[in-house]
Amino acid sequence: MKFSWKNLLLWSLPIIVISFFLWQGIFAPTVNENNTNLTNSRMTYGRFLEYIEMGWVKKVDIYDNGHTAVIEAIGPEIGNRMQKIRVELPASAPELITKLKKNHIDLNAYPTKNNTALWSLLGNLFFPLLLVTSLALLFRRSNNATGGPGQAMSFGKSKALFQVEAKTGIIFDDVAGIDEAKEEFEEIVTFLKKPEYFTAVGAKIPKGVLLVGPPGTGKTLLAKAIAGEANVPFFSISGSEFVEMFVGVGASRVRDLFKKAKENAPCIIFIDEIDAVGRQRGTGIGGGNDEREQTLNQLLTEMDGFEGNTGIIVIAATNRADILDAALLRPGRFDRQVNVDIPDFKGRLDILNVHAKNKKIDNNVSLSIIARRTPGFSGADLANLLNEAAILTARERKNQITLKEIDKAIDRIIAGMEGTALIDSKSKRLIAYHEIGHAIVGTLLRNHENVQKVTLIPRGQARGLTWFTPSEDQSLISRSQIKARIMGALGGRAAEEIVFGESEITTGASNDLQQVTSMARQMVTRFGMSTIGPMSLENEDSNPFLGRGMGNTNEYSDEIAIKVDSQIKLIVDECHNKTRDIIKNNRVIIDKLVDILIEKETIDGNEFANIIKQYTTIQHKI
C-alpha cells in the first residue's frame, strides 16, 4: 500500500486513544504507590498489637501517611529470626504511638513521595493534545486532497451520479411495449438536441416529466434509454438519498444538485422513486420541521422558484403518484405525467422479442402464443419469464428453450416452485374432485374465462391448481362476469359437498371463500350491483401515512350495514346453489375427468374442452 500521512494518521488515531485509556487505567495508578512492597508477609493490626505486648517487635517503619507499617520482629512463631512483616493500620489509632514509645520500639515515618503530578500532567494533557493535533492534521490533509471540506464534512453534498455522456448501453430501440411513453421522451431528446425547431414557434422546454406506473413496467429502463440517447449531461439519484438523519441535509443536497445542474445546463436530472421525498405535506406527523418536508420544500423551490432552472429537465419515476404533494404535480414543475401501464398483447410481444435476442429458443416456440398466455405480465415479469425458462433449459442440459420450459416458467412465476407429487390416493382423489369442480363450473359458464390447465402437481402452498386464461381487457367487468367468477371459485367446495358429503368438506377452499366474499362485498358496496341501489358505500382511499385502511370508517348507518351484510349473503347463497346444481347435473363427466386427472396428473385446456365436447348434453354453456 502506498505510504501517505493520511493513512498513517488514520492508523495512529485508534492506537493513541487505546494507549491513553491503558495509561489511565493500568500504568498511572502504579506510579502513585510508595515503596511499600518490601515484603510479601502480612499481619493483622490486632496481631501486631499482641506482638508489641510480647516484646517481639524491634522496629516499625510507617508509610502512606500512617496507613501502612512495615515491622521488624523476632519470635518463636516466626522461627526466632528477624523478619519484615506488612501491617495495614486503621485510619485512627492514637494508642499505637503510645505503645511503641512505652516498649522502646524504634519508630520511623516516611512521607509520601509526590511524584504523581508529572504523570497526571502527562496523562491528562499530553494524550488529548496529541489526539486533537492528529485530528487537525487529518482534516487539513483531507481538505488539501479534495479541495473542499473533506469527506467528514460532506453530508450536504449531492450523491447524484453525474455523467457527461451517459453510456448506459440502452437506447430507445431496447425499450418495447410502451410506445406512447417513448414518443414523449423522443420529443424531449429532440428538444435538447435541436431546440431551435421548438423555440422558433415560441415553445418552451418542459421543466419536468413524471413517469407513473406499476412496478416493473420499465420506468427506470426508459430513463436509462433517455440517458443513452441524449448527448447532454445526465444526473441520476434516488429519492431516498436526499433524506438523512441530520436536519437540513436533504435540502442542502437538493441545492447542491441543482447548482451542479445549472453549471452543466442543458442537462437532465433523473430522480427514481420520488415518492420517498415528495409525499404530501401537512399530515400532522413530524410538524413543520420535518426533515422530509424541508427537503420537499427545497425541491419545489429549485424546480420553479424565483430563479428558475432554465435548461434543466427533471424526470422522476414513481408507482405511488396518489401520495405525491399537489404542489409537486402542478404545471411548471412537472408539466407532463406519462403513464407507463402494463403492456397489452402487442406490447408483450415486442418485449418478448427484445429479451429473446440473446436466448436460444426453439423454432417451434411462438412468442405470440406466449404473449397471449401472459396477460397482466409487466416487462420485468416477461424478462424474468424467459430467464427462468433459460435456467430450466440449462438445468436439463438442453441446447434450446422449448415450450415445455416456458410452460414451467410461467407456472413457477404465478404459483411458485413445483412440489412433490401426491401419493395418498384418498387425498389425491379429494383434491382432484376439488380442482375439476372449479374447471367444470368455469367451462360451463358463458361469462367465465376458459380453462388453461388443471393439475394435481403441488406448487407453493397449493396442493392442486386450476388455471383460467384471463381476458385481455380487465378494466371493465360486468355483473354477470363477477357472478361467474364467484361461482367458479365456489366450484371446488360444491364438488366436495356433492361427492363426499358436507361432513367431509376440507379447508382447501379457504382462499376461494376469501375471494368470493371480497367480490360479493365489492358488488354491493362499490359497484352498486344490489337491491340497495347505485351507491358507493366504500372506496379505496387510504391514508398513506397511517397505513392502508387504518383511516377508513363506515360512512353509512347501522341499518345500511345490516342490508349490506344481507345482500352479500344473498349473492353468495344464490351463486352457491347454482354451482351445486351444475355439479349435480354433470356428475358423470366430473367422475370421468377425475379419473383422467388422477392418471395423468395434468390436463391442458384443449384436452379438457375436447373431453367435454364428447358429451352432447352439456355442449351448451349456461
Give me the secondary-structure topology.
Elements: H1 5-31, E1 42-43, H2 45-53, E2 57-63, E3 68-73, E4 83-88, H3 94-102, E5 106-109, H4 116-146, E6 161-163, H5 179-193, H6 196-199, E7 208-212, H7 219-229, E8 234-238, H8 249-263, E9 267-272, H9 291-303, E10 312-318, H10 326-329, E11 336-339, H11 345-355, H12 367-373, H13 379-395, H14 403-415, H15 425-444, E12 451-455, E13 465-468, H16 479-500, H17 510-525, H18 558-585, H19 587-600, E14 602-604, H20 605-613
Parallel strand pairs: 1-4, 2-5, 7-10, 7-11, 8-9, 9-10
Antiparallel strand pairs: 2-3, 3-4, 6-8, 12-13, 12-14
Helix pairs in contact: 1-4, 8-9, 11-12, 11-13, 13-14, 15-16, 15-19, 16-17, 16-18, 17-18
Summary keywords:
extended; alpha/beta; Rossmann fold; Signal recognition particle alu RNA binding heterodimer, srp9/1; 622 residues; 5-stranded mixed β-sheet; 47% helix; 6-stranded mixed β-sheet; 5 domains; 20 helices; 14 strands
Helix proportion range:
40-55%
What CATH architecture label of the largest domain applies?
A: Up-down Bundle
For the record, the CATH class of the largest domain is Mainly Alpha
Estimated structural class: alpha/beta
Alpha-carbon distance between the two ends: 81 Å
Mean pLDDT: 78
The neighbouring-strand order within the major sheet is 6-8-9-10-7-11
Portion of residues in beta strands equals 5-15%
C-alpha Rg (nearest Å): 42 Å
Shape: extended
* Main sheet properties: 6 strands, mixed
* Number of helical stretches of at least 4 residues: 20
* Fourth-level CATH superfamily of the largest domain: Peptidase M41
| Residue runs with pLDDT of under 50 for 5 or more positions | 27-37, 143-153, 544-551, 616-620
Number of domains: 5
Task: Report the count of strand segments.
Answer: 14
CATH topology of the largest domain: Methane Monooxygenase Hydroxylase, Chain G, domain 1
